[in-house]
Amino acid sequence: MSEKPFRRCRTFKYRLHPTKHQEQALTRLLSFQRELYNAALEERIGVWKWEKRSVTFFDQCQTLSTLKDVRPEVLEAGVTLCRGTLQRVDRAYAAFFRRVRRGETPGFPRFKGAARFDSLEWGDRSGWKLTEEHRLRLLGVGVVTMNYHRPLAGTPKAITVKREGRKWWVSIRCVDVPAQPLAPTGRAVGLDLGIVNLLATSEGQLVDPERFAKRGRERLALAQRSLATKQRGSNRRARHVEEVARLHRKVRNQRSNAHHQLSRRLVNEFDLIVVEDLRIKNMVRSPKPKPDPSDPSSFLPNGAAAKAGLNHSISDAGWGLLLSRIAYKAEEAGRTVVTVDPRYTSQRCVVCNHVAPSNRVSQAVFRCQRCGHEDHADVNAACNILWAGRAQLAVASVG
Ligand SMILES: [Zn+2]
Fold first, then answer.
1. Is the pLDDT reported for residue 282 higher than 70?
2. Which of these, 60, 345, 53, 371, lies nearest to 193 by C-alpha position?
3. Are 147 and 1 spatial neighbours (Cβ–Cβ below 8 Å)?
4. Rounded Cα gap, residues 133 and 122, in angstroms
């Protein structure tokens, strides 16, 4: 058997402009699929409770045909759409158990109210089609106008249609996307992903990809505070809920755009990009327990809660998202991305290799206690990261 050929994937997102009639049809599909989602979740919970047996995605797909007799409307838009919904239940379950295994305390997958169910997934190529005029034909909805603002590449494989506020979008997943190699630049860079929403490069640049979203975040905070004062169930509150959701989306989009621009710039400029392994980084961040000297059985506060908040803000900042964007753009352009263990990168002197916690004088300042080398602490860390990445590549090329 030959190896499975490598298929480069990309997702392209376009705005949809459904007519009033089509919008009603889409909303109807959402409500049927929500019903299916909740029923599938209920089945999984019930079977586990009464029969101590788990129901798989495949089990649930097989029972889909029984809907023909009891609830034929749900199958109207095709079985692919229904399978897409069952897949979502399956993903929610898998994510829940993954987090449990990691020792976290995630919320159990929940039943979705109408406000919480806003996307439709077609996992394969039936039930929808892109027409030659770049419009989207959906079974049960019709031909929907699409704002084809940039060309697709590769072969469309699956789609997700999503409602965000009053807008509709389609994400088209393509495979076999052709590579677009860039000419080599002969340059390499290390990136230190900071705590205070700052990214430092080994070339001494400090970038704040969150800068653009700052205004939006402030307005969001204001709107959330004002929402808290509105009476439950009132019209005024409902309007505010919508406004808060809109601002959330706006902040998310601004962040996403900033990350796209930053990752594009890095991939254009550098042949080799070295980044930290975020999993290790987050692990290292959790502070050591500090025993209480007067009572050996108890511990003094060590700022764990504050650090937990910190970790939260890291995930908020979406470093992972930035890295994945760097990774796929780099791959498409034929660039190399290396991931390294970030331990000691903030304590090591890049000039003489002396490692000591005291080298880091403050949050921002690094001063080597042996050779006196001084730099911005994050830039020094970024240089160490680049160095570690080069070392890793050298080892790989020898071995
Ligand atoms: Zn030194």
1. no
2. 345
3. no
4. 21
CA dist 152 and 134 (Å) reads: 10
pLDDT at 229: 87
pTM of the model: 0.73
User: Residue 389 C-alpha to ligand 1 middle, in angstroms?
Assistant: 20
Between the CA of 359 and the centroid of ligand 1 the distance, in Å, is 9
Chain Cα centroid distance, residue 263: 15
> Which residue has tokens 């290396």?
338
Characterize the bridge pairing of strands 272-276 and 336-340: parallel
Measure Cα distances from 340 to 275, 321, 366 in Å.
Answer: 6, 17, 21
Region 224-252: what's the mean pLDDT? Answer: 87
Q: Looking at 213-303, list the stretches that DSSP marks H as alpha helix, in order from N- to C-terminal side.
A: 214-228, 235-269, 278-285
HSE-up of residue 185 (Cα within 13 Å, Cβ side):
18
Is residue 168 within 8 Å of 256, Cβ to Cβ?
A: no
- Spacing, Cα 370 to ligand 1 middle (Å): 5
CB 316 within 8 A of CB 248: no
Of the candidates 216, 221, 215, 209, the residue with the CA atom closest to the CA atom of residue 251: 216
Contact of 16 with 170, CB cutoff 8 Å: yes
Domains (ranges, CATH) in the chain?
10-175 (no CATH), 188-210+253-289+307-398 (3.30.420)
Alpha-carbon distance of 185 to 207, in angstroms, equals 21
Per-residue pLDDT reduced to its tens digit, 72-97 = 888 888 899 999 999 999 999 999 98
3-state secondary structure of 3: coil
Between the CA of 355 and the centroid of ligand 1 the distance, in Å, is: 8
SS3 assignment, position 111:
coil
Mean pLDDT over all residues of the chain?
86
Joined together, the tokens standing for residue 98 give 């993954």
Cα of 354 from ligand 1 centre, angstroms? 5
Convert the pLDDT of each residue in 326-383 to its tens digit.
998 998 899 999 999 988 998 999 999 999 999 998 888 999 999 999 999 999 999 9
